[in-house]
């Protein structure tokens, strides 16, 4: 257990005695010079240069880390004439795969023409390493089985490796006991440590983390700390408890600062130890942080109270339409049911065993917006605003987002103002 406190008033403690490893550079790197030269548009080149200047140079290679990576994917390319997947096809060929290193090439089931979120790639790489080491029973323990994110959609539906932790845990003791049972049975090789626990628990206490640390070491389980900054946000004592995971070279850290998850923190990166190469996160330039933290966060968070009743009525109507179409309500996952404070995301539903045409048609009738069937998965945080406001899964072009923002000026006045600032930023490169 590392006894030295990691943080002092949210400032980094210099020279933290962690073990720097090259997990990010070895597993997920790209030649940004080549990327910049290949971009067809002026603004794309400029944005890539910003990313390049903000990326950490490791072992002579610029590692393109999580946030700038999908920011480039979802914001630069939709503005231009071709999509990110088109760009990937051109760079890597039609049967696209992502080369983690010279010895390992991974193909993505049902989505060969896109590069996944780096955290997904790291988890996938961890699974592959476990498999190569002879572990034939690879499982992912997830304490939030109703979370509509990468663990369920990517690891579960596509890899079949999703094994949610028993969700009857109402106390931390019960949570740890359940996890120990899975570990003893050999059913879990990767465990995602939550930044938020449901029901009734914001996050795990230092004591619970210490117990889990023992389980990880005893059973050689790879821990992944999800939403790390939120884990320590409310309980300062947890900072020291989480420090033990920093010495584990297999640990992957991830944070979800965007879209309100950590909007209380000016920059989530400010409380992460920068000298660890295995953090799937990197500070962005101020201008990019403003675009994300202010514009898009403001778009869906501001005005939530004002439209909550409207959302409820629309969702009830949507239920009626789906029932008329013969859809069982048990086949629908409503994000706003478990996250009432974020119910501004109108109709944030996920179909399960539902005809996509029926599903999207019902949303279009209720919400009065044009929708398209799903075409693969994008980053869940980015999906939240798209799927929540319109029910569609394709990336938006910026003018569409602006139109959605100002559709109801009384509700989205603040979001529209902030997003307009972001639009001005992009227009200067046109």
The domain count comes to: 3
What is the rounded Rg? 21 Å
Q: Could you say what the CATH topology of the largest domain is called? A: Aspartate Aminotransferase, domain 2
Total of helices: 18
Distance from first to last alpha carbon? 52 Å
Helix content: 40-55%
Give the strand order, joined by hyphens, for the main sheet: 8-7-9-10-11
Write the CATH homologous superfamily of the largest domain: Type I PLP-dependent aspartate aminotransferase-like (Major domain)
β-sheet strand percentage: 5-15%
Please give the oligomerization state of what you see. single chain
| Name of the top-level CATH class of the largest domain | Alpha Beta
Write the layout of secondary structure elements.
Blueprint: E1 7-8, E2 11-12, H1 23-27, H2 32-38, H3 42-54, E3 57-58, E4 61-62, H4 66-79, H5 84-92, E5 98-101, E6 104-106, H6 118-132, E7 140-142, H7 150-158, E8 162-164, H8 172-184, E9 190-193, H9 206-219, E10 222-225, H10 228-233, H11 238-246, E11 252-253, H12 286-301, H13 304-324, E12 332-334, H14 335-338, E13 349-351, H15 356-367, H16 380-390, H17 398-405, H18 409-427
Parallel strand pairs: 7-8, 7-9, 9-10, 10-11
Antiparallel strand pairs: 1-2, 3-4, 5-6, 12-13
Helix pairs in contact: 2-3, 3-4, 8-9, 9-11, 12-18, 13-15, 17-18
């Amino acid at each position: 257990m590392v006894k030295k406190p990691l943080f002092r008033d949210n400032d980094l403690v210099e020279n933290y005695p962690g073990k720097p490893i090259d997990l990010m550079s070895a597993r997920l790197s790209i030649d940004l010079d080549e990327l910049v030269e290949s971009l067809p548009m002026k603004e794309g080149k400029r944005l890539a240069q910003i990313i390049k200047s903000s990326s950490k140079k490791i072992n002579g290679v610029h590692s393109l880390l999580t946030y700038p990576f999908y920011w480039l994917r979802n914001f630069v390319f939709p503005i231009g004439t071709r999509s990110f997947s088109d760009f990937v096809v051109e760079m890597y060929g039609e049967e696209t795969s992502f080369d983690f290193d010279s010895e390992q090439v991974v193909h993505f089931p049902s989505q060969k023409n896109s590069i996944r979120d780096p955290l997904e790639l790291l988890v996938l790489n961890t699974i592959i390493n476990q498999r190569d080491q002879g572990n034939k029973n690879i499982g992912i323990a997830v304490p939030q089985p109703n979370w509509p994110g990468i663990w369920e959609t990517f690891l579960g539906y596509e890899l079949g490796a999703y094994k949610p932790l028993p969700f009857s845990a109402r106390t931390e003791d019960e949570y740890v006991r359940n996890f120990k049972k899975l570990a003893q049975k050999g059913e879990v090789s990767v465990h995602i440590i939550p930044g938020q626990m449901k029901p009734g628990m914001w996050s795990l206490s230092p004591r619970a983390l210490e117990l889990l640390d023992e389980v990880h070491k005893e059973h050689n389980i790879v821990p992944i700390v999800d939403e790390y900054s939120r884990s320590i946000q409310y309980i300062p004592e947890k900072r020291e408890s989480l420090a033990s995971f920093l010495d584990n070279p297999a640990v992957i850290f991830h944070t979800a600062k965007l879209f309100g998850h950590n909007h209380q923190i000016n920059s989530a990166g400010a409380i992460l130890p920068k000298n660890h190469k295995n953090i799937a996160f990197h500070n962005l330039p101020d201008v990019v942080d403003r675009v994300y933290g202010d514009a898009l966060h403001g778009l869906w968070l501001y005005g939530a109270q004002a439209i909550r009743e409207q959302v409820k009525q629309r969702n009830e109507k949507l239920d009626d339409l789906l029932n008329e179409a013969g859809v069982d309500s048990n086949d629908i996952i409503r994000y706003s049911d478990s996250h009432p404070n974020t119910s501004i995301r109108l109709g944030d539903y996920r179909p399960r065993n539902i005809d996509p045409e029926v599903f999207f048609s019902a949303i279009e009738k209720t919400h009065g917006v044009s929708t398209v069937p799903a075409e693969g998965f994008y980053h869940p945080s980015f999906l939240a605003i798209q799927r929540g406001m319109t029910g569609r899964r394709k990336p938006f072009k910026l003018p569409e987002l602006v139109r959605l923002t100002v559709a109801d000026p009384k509700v989205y006045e603040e979001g529209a103002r902030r997003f307009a600032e972001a639009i001005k930023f992009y227009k200067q490169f046109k």
